[in-house]
Model the fold of this input.
Amino acid sequence: MFRQPSDKGGQVMSDSVYKVVELVGTSPQSWEDAVKNVVKKAKDSLQDLRVAEVSELDVKIENGEVAAYRAKVKLSFKYNS
Done:
């Protein structure tokens, strides 16, 4: 008998397709805020966001000081054709 794969929570995963985009968020306060900025902005144009994966963290330096925190984030959302 074939069983559908389940996610980590034990729920059955549906037959869906997801698209992944990569965005960079910035914040003068923290990497966490930079990630939140990405998700906040992305939800305005992408529907049914599913997962955000932080792939890189860095900082912008000006005059020897941290001027901004930057986070490269991969976002997945359900693909509807």
The mean pLDDT is 87. The helical segments are 31-42. The chain is about 15% helix and 45% strand. The longest helix spans residues 31-42.
